[in-house]
Design brief:
- By secondary structure, the protein is mainly beta.
- It has a single domain (3-75), classed as TRAP-like (Immunoglobulin-like).
- Helices cover 9% and strands 55% of the residues.
- It contains 1 helix and 7 strands.
- The strands form 2 sheets. A 4-stranded antiparallel beta sheet has the order 4-1-6-7, with no helix packed on it.
- It starts with a helix and ends with a strand.
């Protein structure tokens, strides 16, 4: 693993649900993108997620606040 990969794989996001039933879906890295993990959060619950060798994207369905190095992002608006 080179330094560039460490920077990418070391990225964390915090997701705070603003309503019940917020879905968080992890998508695989590689030639074919597939779902590999799902979580459901209720209002007020928080999840910390990390980009890894297997996770290239995180999809969020529902109203939530995502905290990352780019700032705060609201989903579900």
């Amino acid at each position: 693993m080179n330094n560039e990969n460490i920077n990418i794989y070391g990225e964390y996001v915090a997701i705070k649900a603003l309503e019940n039933g917020v879905n968080i879906i992890g998508l695989t890295r590689g030639r074919d993108t597939k779902f590999h993990h799902t979580e459901k959060l209720d209002k007020g619950e928080v999840m910390l997620a990390q980009f890894t060798e297997n996770t290239s994207a995180i999809k969020i369905r529902g109203k939530a606040i995502i905290y990352c190095r780019h700032g705060e992002i609201n989903s579900g608006d």
